[in-house]
Design a protein that fits this description.
Blueprint (H helix, E strand, L loop, with lengths): L2 H14 L4 E3 H19 L8 E4 L2 E4 H7 L6 H10 E5 L2 E4 L10 H14 L4 H8 L3 H4 L2 H5 L7 E2 L20 H16 L1
Helix pairs in contact: 1-4, 2-5, 2-6, 2-9
């Protein structure tokens, strides 16, 4: 995972919102959509975060830990505090513009594309939308069963399953997806 990219992506999305304040659930869904899109196009996610299927949809684990103040080291929390301010459990504010230099050109393009298409949606709309994707549907029965745990690590191979929806971003040629998936797996083995 790349915590600097996670922090800057959160800052990027927060900075796009009115008052530079974003709902935490909304930022989780925008990160997920960006990583899902980028993985399918280029064989890697932007943030290299791990995703968990939770009752309200996919959540990036390390981004959530940073927002919740659970940093693995002081420099991560310092960087986080330089760019972002947690206002309450549901809102985060950008303190300054993100450092876009941490991103590749394809990262920046994906972040921009995802925000332009999905940024107008509310956190609840994005949560409901995420429940239609294979990476959440795969765990749906367990998540709806209150006697079982409420979170499951998502197998990123599920991100490669086509999902028809209005934007058309998540339907690709099967041959292309198979190739990109093999690139992803090759990189994971190194």
């Amino acid at each position: 995972m790349d915590k600097s990219k996670i922090i800057q992506a959160i800052c990027y999305f927060a900075g796009k919102e009115n008052g530079k304040v974003i709902d935490t659930m909304k930022v989780y869904k925008l990160l997920w959509l960006s990583d899902r899109y980028h993985l399918r196009q280029y064989g890697r996610t932007i943030t290299a975060d791990e995703y968990f299927a939770l009752p309200y949809g996919p959540v990036p684990s390390n981004a959530k830990n940073l927002i919740d103040g659970i940093a693995q080291n002081k420099s991560d929390q310092t960087m986080f505090g330089t760019y972002l301010d947690v206002l309450d459990k549901q809102h985060i504010a950008a303190k300054q513009n993100p450092d876009m230099e941490v991103f590749s050109e394809t990262d920046r393009d994906a972040l921009s594309l995802i925000y332009n298409i999905f940024g107008h949606k509310s956190a609840i709309e994005l949560s409901k939308f995420s429940h239609t994707f294979p990476e959440w549907k795969h765990y749906e029965k367990q998540l709806l069963d209150k006697s079982l745990k409420n979170g499951y690590k998502i197998d990123k191979d599920l991100f490669f399953i086509n999902k028809t929806e209005k934007s058309g971003l998540f339907v690709d040629d099967t041959e292309k997806l198979d190739f990109v998936k093999s690139v992803f797996h090759d990189c994971q083995e190194q």
